[in-house]
């Protein structure tokens, strides 16, 4: 079937070729092609592609000597650092399954992932070690590997120092035999309307396919061995994993890596190194355009920019593009799709406010509740088919069968398509909140609020925010006879949730709006907030 967007694609559907190779072989081939090229720049230090491959091979050999086996799960609970990239690709060489974990997670959040994935091994940085040790009382790992300096806190028999494993490993390894279409490379955890975590199983084929698809959307102006990727979005986030790390390595780019996004440090590094490619998130673009001296740091070096994880306000797009001359390619993706499914083409028509067209090899439809495909300019659920779509949810057949039906992924997002095949997200069937590029699931936050002894009822919604995309607001009803201290309630949330999940706004109410059958009406709360803002304006 011919789709309206196909005329805007850089290749015809029949011309799309996805190599059936593992992620490790992508790195190996690049290291052979670009032997003098810097693979990573981190805190002023350069690592060439051959040096990176050597570290990966040594670590893979040490992993093998520790008895790590293909199919076992290894958690990476690390901030942006060369150790993350080395650990990721060493695991892929052996056919281990990488479980990407936010190093800011609380013990409660970490245990959910550990228990669901039945994690075998963990690589952790010092700052997160206390959290990991608390979880180990309930769920001991086969091996615990510490990145960074040695510490007395790691003293049990199955603990190792990552630096020692890299130093003492052999350069000669035998990579695992990988069935690229079947073998899982990454379990990327996400949530859903139930609030329960789900692990999207992404195969080597899924991830390599999404790299190829993304590369094609940038056209021939993106040169192998010539680009530098400004990488400030966390690598444990599926967007940075593909758009910065895996794509960057595939094209032989230099990954200019930052532990975290600090605007002044990033601007000074842009001035020094002149990166050409920036896969960012809205809060980063917002920080750039609001910096008082941004025009002094040479941001016109950027040729390719993309924005993911949350909608990017039009006014920020216009300001950033006037500063740099670079075009921001708005797009769309999901953890379940490796993640990219749509992008405004780098060459060709761009429609600001649209998520663009489906990537090469991707088919999409907008359907009604009876699965009937809707005509253009009609709102319905966006469903997606393509080589980047996950294998399913880890150890969760029920959710898999709901999400994947007849080869289509049901996103839960409400969308419409225009006559040219460009898509627009207009809402979410799911109630997920996106804050600064991170997904927040209201039921999880509500669950923590309900754990407070003074709370009778609680509901959480996302409200529009120029900087973060959305902020979390909690509405609570206090039990009769109790006085609630909101600062104490906020402290309760901080003890049980990662910082970005903690509500920024709280409101105490006598009651919450419900319909005649008692269902909470979150939409009414959002409408009230909108009406209040309109009165203020």
Could you explain the architecture of this structure?
The chain is of the alpha/beta class. Among the domains are: 19-178, Rossmann fold (3-Layer(aba) Sandwich), CATH 3.40.50; 433-536, ANL, C-terminal domain (GMP Synthetase, Chain A, domain 3, 2-Layer Sandwich), CATH 3.30.300.30. It is built from 15 helices and 27 strands. The protein has an 8-stranded mixed beta sheet, sandwiched between helices. The protein has a 5-stranded mixed beta sheet with strand order 12-13-14-15-16. Strands 17, 18, 20, 21 and 22 form a 5-stranded antiparallel beta sheet that branches. Helix 5 links the parallel strand 5 (121-125) and strand 6 (143-147). Helix 1 packs across helix 3, helix 2 packs across helix 3 (82-93) and helix 2 (49-65) packs across helix 6 (162-168). It is globular. Pfam families: AMP-binding (PF00501), AMP-binding_C (PF13193). Keywords: Ligase. Residues 444-519 form the AMP-binding enzyme C-terminal domain.
What is the topological layout?
Elements: H1 23-33, E1 38-42, E2 45-48, H2 49-65, E3 73-77, H3 82-93, E4 97-100, H4 107-117, E5 121-125, H5 129-136, E6 143-147, E7 159-161, H6 162-168, E8 184-190, E9 198-203, H7 204-218, E10 228-231, H8 238-250, E11 254-257, H9 263-273, E12 277-280, H10 282-289, E13 304-307, H11 314-324, E14 327-333, E15 340-343, E16 357-358, E17 363-367, E18 380-385, E19 392-393, H12 397-403, E20 404-405, E21 408-417, E22 423-428, E23 433-435, E24 438-440, H13 442-450, E25 455-465, E26 469-478, H14 486-496, E27 505-508, H15 522-536
Parallel strand pairs: 1-11, 3-4, 3-5, 4-8, 5-6, 6-7, 10-11, 12-13, 13-14, 26-27
Antiparallel strand pairs: 1-2, 8-9, 9-19, 14-15, 15-16, 17-18, 18-21, 20-21, 21-22, 23-24, 25-26
Helix pairs in contact: 1-2, 1-3, 2-3, 2-6, 4-5, 7-8, 10-11
